[in-house]
Amino acid sequence: MQGLKYLDAMSFPKLTWVHQTNVYEVNLRQYTPEGSLIAFMRHMPRLKEMGVHTLWFMPLTPISKYKRKGTLGSYYACADYRSFNPEFGSMQEFKALVQLAHEMNMKVIIDWVANHTGADHIWTTEHPAFYHVNEQGEFFDKNGWDDVYDLNYQHQPLRDEMIECMKFWVKETDIDGFRCDMAMLTPVDFWNEARTALDSVKKLFWLAECDQWNEPAYLEVFDAAYTWRWMNTTRDYYQHALPIHTLLDVLYGYNGLRPKNAIRAWFTSNHDENTWNGTEYEKYGNMAKLLAVFSCTWNGIPLLYNGQELPNHKRLSFFEKDPIEWNQYCELHDFYKILLTLHHQHPALMASTDMVHTHFAATDHQDKVIGYLRKNGDAEVFVLLNLSPYPLEITIYDHGIQGIFHEAFSGAIIDLTDRRLITLDSWGYMVGVNKG
């Protein structure tokens, strides 16, 4: 990769809070019937109480009208990087939201689309040299997305202006970071340049929409990245009854990747997955909640999509108005509250730190069960996942796992001093907490 030496550890130190954060994606258009910041702010106390720590807002910039898809267009077809989309409210209202989040000890990151702009972005007339052109001298997008045009990062003035636009949002609104859309489509040396420049304004959290499995060099710049390999493998495991080693192979594979201190974001849904590939219940069925437990207890940070706490069983439209159908009470509120709070507070669940060790547990059902102990000093979390459609009585053979644990969901005492038998329902899970 241009401009970067391959390292064993990323070049930028992580903020302390990043190791135990969680990320909740907000699709403002569909969040409420109003689709506004003001309407969303009424949900923030509920989200805080549920344990949400970092709010990720899909792009807040105006959407291009030329070549617009559907009635409302794609969030990811930006018309002006320094303006606020009036569909959602105003820049002043967003500043107030960020301030409120900070008062609630929450963080806010925004989606940043650097690879391309919408087809009528102000740069298409003011700075046409910022764009790639085809043999006919026309703007185009190499991925086949027909409502956007690719930017040319060989042109330094574009890089300089893109960085200034990112600085604008940090200075104006005091956001805490960026989720960078399709990060691997933009040269990694640009992200290195951008993060270096933004560090002088404010230390931020940087989340890349790419997978360390395929793009390890990007994790020398970004704090965290997606885990598409795991997401796709777990889907195939459930739908095609694959052997359990296919899951373990992926986990061992991630563990062997460089840089070693990269954080992985685990998820079952997001705006793309929900709309184009199906809800987590279409993809994973009865395995969906088990995967949520995994996402919050394995080494990394959990990423949630709005409505998963309902749970939401419908695909949300991308280019049209299609509000989430909120009920008076979210059925999975307490389920996620337990998981998110435990992940945020328990020292054994810190992501990507040498203080925490993860140890696979030996059981008598190695072909159906994954068990693991996460340990930070005396603080321990022991997790058992029954990855089968059968109820199981599971014997723990691993005598490195000892002592009294409190089950996070039921409060039951699990004594692994002598009796080492645990019963789990089909697709069941157990989260045992010891100290912390």
Please describe what this structure looks like.
The protein has helices spanning 28-31, 37-41, 44-50, 91-103, 123-126, 156-173, 188-199, 228-240, 245-255, 271-277, 280-284, 288-297, 333-345; strands at 23-26, 54-57, 107-112, 116-118, 148-150, 177-180, 205-211, 224-226, 263-266, 301-305, 357-360, 369-376, 379-386, 392-395, 404-407, 413-415, 421-424, 429-434. Strand 6, helix 7 (188-199) and strand 7 form a beta-alpha-beta unit. The radius of gyration is 22 Å and the shape is globular. By secondary structure, it is an alpha/beta fold. The protein has 2 domains: 16-354, TIM Barrel (Alpha-Beta Barrel); 358-434, Immunoglobulin-like, CATH 2.60.40. Strands 1-2-3-6-7-8-9-10 form an 8-stranded parallel beta barrel. Strands 11-12-13-18-15-16 form a 6-stranded antiparallel beta sheet, with helices on one face. A two-stranded antiparallel ribbon has the order 4-5. Helix 6 packs across helix 7 (188-199), helix 8 (228-240) packs antiparallel against helix 9 (245-255) and helix 12 packs parallel to helix 13.
